[in-house]
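Hi there, hope your week has been kind to you so far. Thanks so much in advance, here it is.
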Amino acid sequence: MHILLMNGPNLNILGNRDTDHYGTITLEDIEKAFQMRADDLKVKSVSFFQANSEGDLVDFIQTTTADAIVINPGALTHYGYSLRDALEDFGKPIIEVHISNIYAREDFRNKSVIADIATGQISGLGLNGYLSALDFLTENNTLE
């Protein structure tokens, strides 16, 4: 089983970005914790990809051989239709993750164009949301 962890625009500056909403954890911290949990769960392989451009994310999805994607689309959550289409075409499990609770923020953040094609969505649990996505994918035989 190969799981791809993707992060969208501005998530590369976590730790410095709006710490009231996102805390002080960095993307590197998230990736390390994700890898450690994957190792504990005996996941065959994990890869990471972050981009600030929607096109780069789409291109990567179109070429991945992953069995599942855990994705924090960042602001693309609300208007990234080409990202949504690429994820839908991926045809395998997708877990949408958000560090902050998108439903407790500005009105425009309350809509996800990804949610209806995702296997599930986790919002507002910080780092634990990423780890919970990994747990779900492995514990519920989602990848068989």
Observations:
- Residues 2-139 form a domain with the Rossmann fold fold (CATH 3.40.50.9100).
- Strands lie at 2-7, 45-50, 68-72, 94-98, 120-123.
